[in-house]
Amino acid sequence: MSLLLKHIGTIVGIEHMGRLRRSGAEMDLLDRLDNAYLATDEGRITAFGPMSEMPDEAHFDTVVDAEGGTLFPSFCDSHTHLVYAGSREQEFLDKIHGLSYEEIARRGGGILNSADRLHACSEEELYQQALERVDEVIRMGTGLLEIKSGYGLSTADELKMLRVIRRLRETTPVEIRATFLGAHAVARDYIGRQSDYVHLVCEEMLPAVAREGLADFVDVFCDQGFFTIEETRRIMRRGAELGLRAKIHANELAISGGVQLGVEEHALSVDHLERMGEAEIEALQASETMPTMLPGAAFFLGMSYPPARAMIEAGLAVALASDYNPGSSPSGNMRMVMALAATQMRMTPTEALHAATLNGAAAMGLSHDFGSITVGKVANFFLTRPLSSPEFFTYAYSTPLIRRVFLRGCEYR
Ligand code: NIG
Ligand code: FE
Fold first, then answer.
1. What fold, for 76-362?
2. Which of 18, 62, 187, 269 has its CA 20 to 30 A from that of 5?
3. 79, 84, 101, 111, best to mutate for ligand 1 pocket (most atoms within 8 Å of CB)
4. Which residues are within 8 A (CB) of 50 and not within 5 positions of it... i.e. 6 or more apart?
5. Ligand 1 centroid distance, CA of 226 (Å)
6. CB atoms within 10 A of CB 356
7. Gap between the Cα atoms of 224 and 255, Å rounded
8. What is the pLDDT along the chain (413 residues), one digit of tens a residue?
9. Cα angle, residue 140 at apex, residues 174 and 384 outer, rounded to 5°
10. What's the pTM value of the predicted model, to 2 decimals?
11. Residue 373 gets which letter from DSSP?
């Protein structure tokens, strides 16, 4: 099927240079085209340019009048946990009333609470709940999405989660990648026997996941009170043997060495980064590992934000993701994430856009196909109503500006 969009007010997020990520000062350069058309065929972008050069409409199956709106590349949300059962607003209330994370955990809260709920939930019900969230994020502009397991914590329940992710992949038009996060927390039955749990992750869960081809990546919650550097290294290496690249949770609760480990082991990304020092930034400078910030989690938990300016000024590429999950970020709204990046981390809306699109795709190893308006890339984008400037989109962050969403060149309704 071919599609022609005409009278586009402005196209943003254009990438002509074949860059697979934007780093440092490049992040703040907005490549835009005003009064434009864009053409797609078989789900890929085939051409775009000024209206004066638009091809004949008669050659297209579908023609859409953009009515002067702005066309953005779809968000590439490289870090979510959006397959989960139920919700955890009771813990939200407990936190408001002053309970600490440890007290909440003692009352049965936290990741183990989600694991209990997931265990009790059928695969079909889990799929239906997650499907609603996927539909929600597509309407908010996401076109490429990573989803983690990690609320199963037993072989059977981790496989159940990953099968739900596979079904979402098969039944929705958004592009999905799956990450195995068995080492999200030590399962209830293994408390006090953490090394036995790590053994289970490496010798039973990972081989089972690989056998069914259910995951693209492996993740570990490498932080104070969760998994150690040595345990994380072991899980990453076992994942690598089975063909899974690593994306790790690092430096959320402490400067733990997780960033350096990610760099040494060639992780695709290191995510969270609320606690960063100079050594962490230096380690990233010499690597391809994408630092990924999740300001929705810092916002929801009232934590400090990652030092985005220092990272960009050191010449790094950075990515932004939602961390959509029931405990620390119950939202997959990437516009809100961009607004938090701007207001709390002093990223410009243009830097935030590149972090949420091209660099997010790079954090999944997919920026050759996603994350910008480039001829040959997958035709994932959305149209807004006419905007006074591209910056207005991040500034008026809760106004429903998105009018139409296109995935693989087809309109999503
Ligand atoms: O990315 N930090 C670890 N895991 C999730 C939160 C998990 C939860 O509380 O359910 C996160 O923030
Ligand atoms: Fe997370």
1. TIM Barrel (3.20.20)
2. 18
3. 111
4. 33, 35, 36, 37
5. 11
6. 31
7. 9
8. 999 999 999 999 999 989 999 999 999 999 999 999 999 999 999 999 999 999 999 999 999 999 999 999 999 999 999 999 999 999 999 999 999 877 887 787 899 999 999 999 999 999 999 999 999 999 999 999 999 999 999 999 999 999 999 999 999 999 999 999 999 999 999 999 999 999 999 999 999 999 999 999 999 999 999 999 999 999 999 999 999 999 999 999 999 899 999 999 999 999 999 999 999 999 999 899 999 999 999 999 999 999 999 999 999 999 999 999 999 999 999 999 999 999 999 999 999 999 999 999 999 999 999 999 999 999 999 999 999 999 999 999 999 999 999 999 999 99
9. 110
10. 0.97
11. B
Q: How, if at all, do strands 2-11 and 62-65 pair?
A: parallel
CA of 325 to the centre of ligand 1 (A): 7
Which of 330, 333, 290, 8 has its CA nearest to residue 142?
333
CA-114 nearest atom, ligand 1? 10
Give the burial class of 178: count Cβ atoms within 10 A of its Cβ; 0-12 exposed, 13-18 middle, 19 or more buried: buried
Cα separation, 378 vs 75, whole angstroms:
13
Q: What are phi and psi of 409, to 5 degrees?
A: 75, 5
CA distance 256 to 228: 8
**Tokens coding 342:** 């701007």
Tokens of 270: 């290191």
Q: Which uninterrupted H or E stretch holds 115?
A: helix 111-120
What's domain 2-73+372-411's superfamily in CATH? Urease, subunit C, domain 1 (2.30.40.10)
Structure tokens at 146: 């990573």
Q: What residue ranges of the chain are covered by domains with CATH 3.20.20.140?
A: 76-362
How far is it, in rounded angstroms, from Cα 234 to Cα 246?
12
Asked whether the beta carbons of 27 and 372 are under 8 A apart, the reply is no
The Cα 118–Cα 97 span in angstroms is 26
Domain(s) of CATH 2.30.40.10: residues in the chain: 2-73+372-411
Report how far ligand 2's centroid is from the alpha carbon of 249 (Å).
6
